[in-house]
Structures are given as structure tokens and as C-alpha cells.
Design goal:
single chain; 551 residues; alpha/beta; seven-stranded mixed beta sheet; 23 strands; 20% strand
């Protein structure tokens, strides 16, 4: 996908979403029965869509919430449901729908006071805290967010009592029932007005931030950061945790400059992403161009996406760090500076994360747990204390408390940002400098990810392919050593394919939210080799499509 000429430039007024029209579409548009592209569909991060495309409407959310209420009842989940939302326009509307339906079903909801916004990791943290030492009447949660997706999108994510993203065995049940309800014109959906819900015994407002912030020093060395007197800058990108940074700074006596305090549901303050769209992706140097411009003002700067489950780390010398680079540094630091962690805990990574991580983990004498894309695969390992750190290539990560106990089981962009400050405070070097030291030990790989246009049928073929359809014996001039359609960490299907040689690899898998498939590639032999990997990867995928006779 070619770089848009306006990538990194301010958004134009012409491309800003009409929020009033979007909200109107949410309540008036309905999914077309029998149209699979407009049905409820839970991907790796819940159900996502847009009211303009009839894929995220009041009908969808009402059906999902009724299905969720019925599922909770079937599982005996009778504790409170923690519900948060991010700053997307559709999150506001979906929040109202969810409260109306869930309260009508007698679900006890805990929501942020004054209809405030709540980061994804705060909900996960709250669920684990509530369920600690309990075996019955457990809590669960919902986060209404499409993550870093464009302003016109909406998303709905369910976190069961384990605190992390729901597995497919759960979401498939909810998805099937929700689509049945839609086919029946929502017959069987219980609902009360929002006013009635808030006046009922089933909705309780509270401040989620208080307990989360009070416990931060249990997972990050906040005292070391304060003592070092670092100058920190942050751009929340208009996201759900924008108000958290001031509270964190005050409580722990840390200098944090919030450079952008805008909360704008058009996200008109954003810089355009690589394709020219508005996308709040804190791992994109184009979306993060505004903060990168300020990198010399701070010892460390960082940004987050709208639901704060991702992180972007900016240093004076390195600019915005590649997410893989920072994950490698974080792993290398944590497993040498957490003396109370058990010696046998593993490092979790997704199959499409950098092989630099593999080399770092081997040097630490630790075991690697390599999983498919999707944070749900790390939940049980984190919960049981078997995995100390889990990270994915798209700038998401989580790690245990300093005493080795679980902090949360979903990605936490806040603690990953604070960890960057801890690393500098304790070692005197920023994460970018640490990565340069790693390249001197293990060589310097080049990693990239590109999006290639693909329709629904092509994405289906790619997600279900068998490795036997790839008959090539060489890739980019090297013998193919391994073809994988299942992750070694748990033997689960990766929903695509990974092909590896001695000095490089590529992986291809369909996007769960956009009409593209993603190619991830990494080379330890330089840019020309990486370019060859990308070119031959596309040719191999096209060959798969041709053999399946889909265009």
C-alpha cells in the first residue's frame, strides 16, 4: 500500500466525520437480514463496525447485550459487570444501549461516574481485584471501543471473569444468539429507558481511576521515576485515559506534560496515518507525528490509542520506537529487574512479533510461549503466573506485578509507558539506547507490516488455509525451513500462514476489521532482502487465492 502524500500531515476539515449524522445512522440504520457482512461478528478484539455500513448499530448492540445477559446467566456469573467506554462517538451511543438492555436483564452494572471514559486495562484490573479470593458471584466486564480504528467506527469487547478478552468459545455463543435475535427483529430483547436504568438498583457509578492509580507502584517502580526527576511528555490522542496522567503525576510526584488535552469525537487534531485516514494508532509514526515533533523537549514521551491498551514510546534519539524494538527492551529489562518473579515464568509473544525477542529470551535463559495473534491466548498464563510478560507486535503488552502476581490480563498501555520511564530512571539510558545495545549483541533486523486489499472471500480462504498449498521450496533466495499455520506455544491455528528461512520470515493473515490482509515480514539481511520477502509473500498469497478460485 503506497504512502499517502498527506501522511503525517494535519487532518483536513473535509475528511472529518459528521458526528450528528453518524449517531442518527446508529439509531436508524439496521443490518440487512441474511447479509453476512452486516451480522454480529466477534474478531480478535470483539465486534467492530460502523453505523454508516450497517455493521455497528443500536440493533447490533441490543442483540449482543441480550445475548451476553443470557450467557452470564448460563455460566452463573452473578457478580457485577464493570463497563467502560472510550472516546469514539459511537461508544457514547452504544454505552446507552448497553445500559438499557443489561439493566433490564437485572445485571448489576458498575460504570464510571458522570459518564466518564475508562481505559481497557482499568476494567481488566478492576475485574481481577474484585474476583481475588472469590469462587462465586464473580465479576466480568465490557469495554465499548474499536481501539485505534477511525472516528466513524464502534466496537464492543467482552471480558469474562478472568479479566482478559473472551475466547472464541465464548464469543461464538454470544455471536450466534445475537444474530438469532436480529433475525427475529429483536423479539426477546429486554430493555428499559436510560433514565429508568440509572434510577434502578442495577446501575452504580464509581471512579474507576482511584484504585487503579493507587496500585500502580505495585507494578512499576514509581518511586524510582519520581526520584530521577525525569521530564515526561504524553499525547493521549484524545483517548479514554487523558485525565489519568494528571492524577498519576500528582500522586507520585512525577513531571508529566500532557501536550494534547483535546477530546474531540471527530479527532480533528490528529495527523493523518500512512493511508491518509484518521486513525489513532500510537504505533504509527504518521499518526504520532505531532508528539515526535516534540521529542527533544522530553527525556521520554509516549502516546496511547483511544482505549489505552496500546503504547507508543518516543525518545530524543530514536523518535517513535518500533513496537517490536520496545518489546525486546522491556523483556530484557523486566526479567533482570524483577527479583521476586519466579525463575520458571515464560515470555509470551505473538507469532508475528520480531525474532529479536526470541534471541533476547534465549539469552535470558527463559522459555518462549509463542501464540497466535490475539491477546486472549495469553490470559490463562498471566492469570496463573506462568507468563511474566506478554506482548504483541501492534504495540500491546502487559506484565506481572513486582511481586509476581497478576496485574491485569488485557493489554495495558499505561504501565508500558511508565515502564519506559522506569527503565531510564533505573539504568540512566532510554529504551532507544537499550535497543541499540541489543542490536550490537544480536544484529539489527528490519521489520515491517503492510496491508493488501482483500475481499471477504479471499480473507476466508487465507484464514483457513492448510500449509500444504504452499509448494515453494525457497523464499527470497533462501531455502524455506518452516511453514506454520499453528502456533508452537499452544498449537492453535494462527488464521493464516508463517513462512521462515534462516535470515527472514513473513506471515500473512486477514484483518478482522478491514478489507485487507496483513503481511508481516522481518529480515536480518537488510532492506533488499526484506523487499524480496514482501514481494514473494504477496505472490504466494495470490497463488493461494488462485488455487481456491477466488478473486
Amino acid at each position: 500500500m503506497a504512502l499517502h502524500p498527506q501522511a503525517g500531515k494535519p487532518a483536513s476539515k473535509q475528511q472529518l466525520v459528521n458526528v450528528a449524522r453518524l449517531i442518527s445512522a446508529y439509531y436508524t440504520n439496521k443490518p440487512e437480514k441474511g447479509n453476512a457482512t452486516q451480522a454480529v461478528a466477534f474478531g480478535t478484539s470483539g465486534h467492530r463496525g460502523s453505523a454508516f455500513l450497517n455493521t455497528f448499530t443500536d440493533t447490533h448492540i441490543a442483540a449482543i447485550c441480550q445475548a451476553l445477559a443470557e450467557f452470564r446467566l448460563s455460566q452463573g456469573t452473578t457478580g457485577p459487570l464493570y463497563m467502560g467506554m472510550d472516546t469514539h462517538a459511537l461508544s457514547e451511543s452504544a454505552f446507552s444501549t448497553a445500559v438499557e438492555v443489561l439493566a433490564a436483564n437485572g445485571v448489576h452494572l458498575l460504570v464510571q461516574e458522570n459518564r466518564g471514559y475508562t481505559p481497557t486495562p482499568v476494567i481488566s484490573h478492576a475485574i481481577l481485584n474484585y474476583n481475588l479470593d472469590k469462587t462465586t458471584a464473580l465479576a466480568d466486564g465490557v469495554v465499548i471501543t474499536p481501539s485505534h480504528n477511525p472516528p466513524e467506527d464502534g466496537g464492543f469487547k467482552y471480558n469474562p471473569p478472568h479479566g482478559g478478552p473472551a475466547d472464541s468459545d465464548v464469543t461464538n455463543i454470544i455471536q450466534l444468539r445475537a444474530n438469532e435475535l436480529i433475525a427475529q427483529d429483536l423479539k426477546g430483547v429486554k430493555r428499559m429507558s436510560l433514565v429508568q436504568a440509572y434510577a434502578s438498583e442495577f446501575v452504580t457509578e464509581m471512579d474507576f481511576a482511584e484504585n487503579y492509580i493507587a496500585q500502580l507502584d505495585q507494578v512499576v517502580d514509581m518511586q524510582a521515576i519520581s526520584k530521577a526527576g525525569l521530564s515526561l511528555g504524553t499525547d493521549p490522542l484524545g483517548g479514554a485515559g487523558y485525565a489519568y496522567w494528571d492524577k498519576i503525576a500528582t500522586r507520585y510526584n512525577i513531571k508529566i506534560d500532557v501536550v494534547n488535552r483535546n477530546v474531540d469525537q471527530q479527532f480533528g487534531f490528529m495527523r493523518r496515518d500512512k493511508d491518509g485516514k484518521i486513525r489513532m494508532d500510537c504505533s504509527s509514526p504518521y499518526a504520532m507525528a505531532g508528539l515526535i515533533d516534540l521529542k527533544d523537549k522530553y527525556d521520554i514521551a509516549f502516546g496511547n490509542d483511544p482505549d489505552f491498551d496500546r503504547h507508543g514510546i518516543v525518545t530524543p534519539q530514536s523518535g517513535l520506537m518500533n513496537p517490536n524494538h520496545y518489546l525486546a527492551v522491556a523483556i530484557n529489562y523486566l526479567f533482570q529487574h524483577r527479583p521476586d518473579w519466579p525463575q520458571d515464568i515464560k515470555v509470551g509473544k505473538t507469532l508475528v512479533s520480531s525474532s529479536m525477542i526470541d534471541r533476547v529470551v534465549a539469552s535470558l535463559g527463559r522459555e518462549l510461549a509463542e501464540m497466535p495473534v490475539g491477546f486472549k491466548w495469553f490470559v490463562q498464563g498471566l492469570l496463573n503466573g506462568e507468563i511474566g510478560f506478554a506482548g504483541e507486535e501492534s504495540a500491546g503488552g502487559i506484565f506481572l506485578r513486582r511481586n509476581g502476581q497478576p496485574w491485569a490480563t488485557d493489554k495495558d498501555g499505561i504501565i508500558l509507558c511508565l515502564l519506559a520511564a522506569e527503565i531510564m530512571a533505573v539504568t540512566g539510558k532510554d529504551p532507544g539506547e537499550h535497543y541499540q545495545e541489543l542490536t550490537q549483541r544480536f544484529a539489527a533486523p528490519i521489520y515491517t507490516r503492510i496491508d493488501v486489499a482483500a475481499n471477504h472471500q479471499q480473507k476466508q480462504v487465507l484464514s483457513k488455509m492448510d500449509k500444504s498449498v504452499i509448494t515453494n521450496t525457497e523464499l527470497a533466495g533462501e531455502p524455506i525451513l518452516q511453514i506454520q499455520t499453528h502456533a508452537p506455544g499452544n498449537n492453535a491455528a494462527i488464521g493464516g500462514v508463517k513462512v521462515s528461512t534462516e535470515n527472514g520470515w513473513f506471515a500473512a493473515r486477514p484483518s478482522g476489521t478491514e478489507d485487507v490482509y496483513k503481511i508481516y515480514a522481518e529480515s536480518f539481511n537488510g532492506q533488499a532482502h526484506l523487499d524480496a520477502l514482501l514481494q514473494e509473500a504477496q505472490a504466494l498469497v495470490e497463488q493461494v487465492f488462485k488455487m481456491a478460485d477466488v478473486k
